[in-house]
Every structure is written in C-alpha cells, then in structure tokens.
Design brief:
Elements lengths: L1 E11 L2 H35 L4 H31 L5 E12 L6 H6 L2 E5 L2 E5 L1
Parallel strand pairs: 1-3
Antiparallel strand pairs: 1-2, 3-4
Protein name: YlqD protein
Pfam family, one: YlqD
C-alpha cells in the first residue's frame, strides 16, 4: 500500500550555500528597509492630505512598520546564526510530500518517521 508522507529536506552548509544564504538574507533585509521607508513616506503623504481619520491611519501604518522592523530583526538574527554555523552543518530547508510503500509487518515508527533527504550544493547526497 502506498501512502503520502511528509519528507524533510536538509541542506548541507557549504561555503557556496553559506554565501548564497547570506546574500539572500541581506537582499530580503534591504527590501524590507525599502518597504518600511515607503510606508513612512505614504503615511506622511496621507496625513498631510487629512482625508482619513488620523487615529486609525496611524495605527494601521504603525502596525505595518512594526511588522517590517520585526522581520528585519529576525533576518539580523538569522545572519548572526549563519555566521556562527560551521561548514557541514545540516539546515532544515523545507518539507515535501512523498509516497512511501508500506506492507503488513513493517515497523510503523521506522517507516513513518525516518524519511529525510540530504542535499549538498543542489545535489541529493543521501536519503535516510
């Protein structure tokens, strides 16, 4: 019998993947800073026009800007952790759905819990 199962995909940290992750995090951080600045600009622009109630407007923009700042803090933390991680570490990248074949007599714990794909520099190195 075949069943659907969640399989964990882990990325082995190499010099190239570490650089790619760092670049991606920094790009995301830059984009969030731009979005934060754009929100500030839009808020000031709408506030000057005085067409909308300022209390609700302020709350909305402050909430949006705080969310951007929280995401920036998270990216800063991820960059710090990435700098600490040694080459060869395994990072959980994502989870995918896959089919597994089970038979009467199979060990359920082993069949259901042990599926992991290890990827190094874009190449599958191991299936556990």
């Amino acid at each position: 019998m075949n069943i659907l199962h969640t399989i964990t995909v882990k990325q082995v940290l190499t010099v190239s993947t570490k650089e790619a992750l760092q670049s991606r995090y920094e790009d995301q951080k830059f984009q969030l800073k731009r979005e934060h600045e754009q929100l500030q600009f839009e808020w000031k622009k709408i506030e000057r026009a005085k067409k909308y109630p300022s209390q609700k407007l302020s709350q909305h923009f402050q909430k949006e800007m705080e969310e951007k700042l929280e995401k920036i803090k998270l990216l800063d933390f991820q960059l710090e952790q990435l700098a600490i991680l040694p080459i060869g570490s395994e990072l959980k990248e994502k989870e995918v759905q896959g089919m597994i074949d089970i038979q009467v007599g199979d060990n359920w714990d082993e069949a259901a819990l042990s599926k992991t794909i290890i990827v190094e520099d874009g190449v599958i190195k191991e299936i556990r």
